[in-house]
Amino acid sequence: MGVISWIILGLLAGATAKILLPGRDPGGFVGTTVIGIAGAFVGGWLSARFLDRPIAEHFFDGATWTAAIGGSLVLLIAYRILFGHSRR
User: Fold this and answer.
1) Residue 61 scores a pLDDT above 60
2) What is the dihedral of CA 19, 14, 6, 48, to 10 degrees?
3) Distance (Å, rounded) from C-alpha 51 to C-alpha 30?
4) 26 neighbors 80 (Cβ within 8 angstroms)
5) Could you tell me the CA-to-CA distances from 86 to 4, 12, 17, 25, 74 in Å, in that order?
6) pLDDT level of residue 72 (50, 70, 90 thresholds)
7) Which of 1, 26, 27, 74 could link 5 by a cystine bridge, Cβ 3.0 to 4.6 Å?
8) Does residue 82 sit in helix, strand or coil?
């Protein structure tokens, strides 16, 4: 997969992570989108590095999508913990 494919995958993974983890984000739509793209890269790297599961060459591979969405969820949770504001 090329870089453009990873960006598209990241956009879709970020949207999926946002659906799975609803609520207000400190960065809004743009921040969530950037987190999704970064999460796709991080999830793919972690999958290849630590799980001995290299990323497939196919865009529609389930393991690739799982890694991208998982990476996006992890980064979105970390972003909320670090930069989220308490609403009391």
Assistant:
1) yes
2) -90
3) 30
4) yes
5) 36, 28, 21, 11, 20
6) confident
7) 1
8) helix
